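Exercise 7b. Backbone tokens:
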């Protein structure tokens, strides 16, 4: 999934230039009336074997339906013109995973639709939560090591080639996508699933598309800011890979320096200190168990790391991607490199909140809930 996020960041760096209507100054903006569309997609695919442990869960081709409601934008605000007039909206996803141990799922998402190639190519990025009907149960469903809980974090990416108004307001679209489920190791087991699928859909404009796109002015992307400093507090609950070991709180304290390069990109460097009760209990377990290692129970469960990151700015929202290294690492747990991906929302110019997943390669350790302050 991290590789996919990196590719998407590359797409976004060119979105603002893919359909530059004009480069001349514009008159004061008169807001367009609200305009909506819906789309209904049917999909079929396969669960990717990202981990050999889930091989027994890949038995057929999952099917499902996506219902999307979209609000169109026409450039009334700067971020809309900057990103080539995207849509934003909500979607519902139902999936039959075609495996008796995985069952079905239904999820709710918030999404953005971004456009390329004269608006024929549509990229949807969606984040939400999903309900799994048959999670792991030690007695009744011990084979489902992918989902440790009913409620999971979910995301999907959808790339469509789209035709509008083929018959009146009805259009068609075809595409491919990937649908990811994980609880971020908030409860074990959590091997997760990634479904790659193909889709065919119908779209329908709920209103007459007679709105006018507000032209993009020259130099719209410019908007650098001086280097700023701040601090962040993150926390939550997670469980080690030991099923039934219990969910425990964790806490992360961090400081950072950030530099906004333009209206789309901010780079960040930071350092953070990690406290994990689940890791502390894991060390105790390894110490008292009959394992062929040197764990004695006196190891320090704290870790300290440094990271570099990028934030893709979309209005008050930012898509976060960080790569970090533990420079204080007294106990060997999942490796010295870590990565973080997620969403940040800027409540004010100084205060922000974030929801991210911290992982080691493709293995999630925790879903982090953060609050931060820029000086």
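Sequence design result:
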């Amino acid at each position: 999934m991290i590789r996919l996020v990196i590719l998407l960041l590359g797409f976004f760096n060119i979105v603002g230039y893919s359909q530059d209507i004009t480069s001349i100054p514009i008159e004061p903006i008169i807001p367009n009336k609200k305009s909506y569309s819906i789309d209904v997609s049917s999909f079929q695919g396969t669960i990717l074997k990202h981990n050999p442990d889930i091989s027994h869960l890949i038995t057929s081709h999952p099917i499902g339906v996506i219902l999307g409601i979209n609000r169109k934008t026409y450039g009334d605000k700067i971020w809309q013109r900057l990103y080539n007039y995207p849509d934003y909206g909500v979607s519902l996803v139902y999936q039959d995973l075609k495996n008796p141990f995985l069952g079905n799922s239904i999820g709710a998402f918030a999404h953005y639709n971004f456009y390329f190639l004269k608006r024929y190519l549509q990229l949807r990025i969606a984040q939400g939560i999903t309900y799994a009907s048959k999670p792991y149960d030690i007695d009744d469903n011990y084979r489902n090591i992918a989902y440790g809980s009913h409620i999971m974090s979910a995301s999907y990416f959808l790339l469509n080639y789209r035709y509008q108004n083929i018959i009146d307001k009805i259009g068609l679209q075809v595409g491919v996508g990937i649908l990811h489920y994980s609880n971020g190791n908030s409860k074990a087991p959590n091997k997760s699933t990634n479904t790659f699928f193909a889709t065919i859909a119908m779209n329908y404009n709920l209103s007459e598309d007679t709105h006018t796109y507000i032209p993009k002015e020259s130099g719209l992307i410019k908007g650098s800011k001086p280097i700023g400093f701040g601090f962040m507090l993150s926390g939550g609950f997670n469980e080690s890979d030991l099923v039934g070991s219990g969910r425990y709180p964790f806490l992360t304290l961090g400081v950072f320096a950030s530099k906004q390069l333009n209206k789309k990109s901010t780079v960040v460097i930071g350092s953070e200190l990690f406290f994990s009760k689940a890791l502390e209990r894991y060390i105790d377990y390894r110490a008292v168990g009959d394992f062929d290692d040197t764990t004695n129970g006196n190891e320090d469960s704290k870790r300290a790391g440094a990271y570099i990151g990028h934030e893709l700015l979309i209005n008050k929202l930012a898509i976060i991607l960080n790569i970090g290294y533990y420079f204080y690492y007294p106990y060997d747990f999942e490796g010295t490199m870590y990565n973080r991906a997620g969403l940040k929302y800027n409540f004010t110019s100084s205060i922000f909140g974030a929801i991210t997943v911290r992982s080691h390669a493709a293995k999630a350790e925790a879903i982090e809930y953060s609050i931060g302050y820029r000086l």
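Instructor comment: Residues 2-15 form the longest helix (14 residues). DSSP finds three helices and 16 strands in the chain.
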